Amino acid sequence: EIVLTQSPGTLSLSPGERATLSCRASQSVSSSNLAWYQSKPGQAPRLIIYGASSRATGIPDRFSGSGSGTDFTLTIGRLEPEDFAVYYCQQYATSPTFGGGTKVEIK
Amino acid sequence: QVQLVESGGAVVQPGRSLRLSCAASGFIFTTYAIHWVRQAPGKGLEWVALISYDGGNKYFADSVRGRFTFSRDNSKNTVYLQMNGLRAEDTAVYYCARSRGYLGPFDFWGQGTLVTVSS
Question: In which residue ranges of chain B is pLDDT below 50?
Fold first, then answer.
């Protein structure tokens, strides 16, 4: 099983600031089969990034993903009020696994 | 529009069984694999199970293998998660989600249904 470790656990930022979230895999994730999801209380999780760097349909371009192998990053260029949420990385190269999540909270 | 609607969540006693359903609409159901993902209270996301587009292949997380079964009825655009031998640690919101192929990003999720296992 590929274990994903996300850091930091919580990110306290103000609207307009840049957010950088990290996801590290216990082994290489083949073909960059890595996704990022946004989760808000009482709502369905939403796909943000797939293939490590491709934005899902309808996702604004302030969201970007990068990385390969074992190290991946989600960057939110300028935080909007609706971006404050928990973000999970997921690998789908093998039996899917999720990271523990990073909470982006308002400072 | 694309919809996945889960149902069947309830409060059940340990050791009992429960069946969840996920009804799909707004897309060609037979071209997608369907997954169940759960989120325990205050915890992160945990992948639970996968069923292929035709129901011919099923995969389960170690935590539920042997207790949960998964089926789909493509004539009704519905999948079913049969949960047997429920434990307190199965308490969670259960989401269904779709992906192209067995291994792909989960590009749409339902709103979830709550399962509580308690005596």
Answer: none
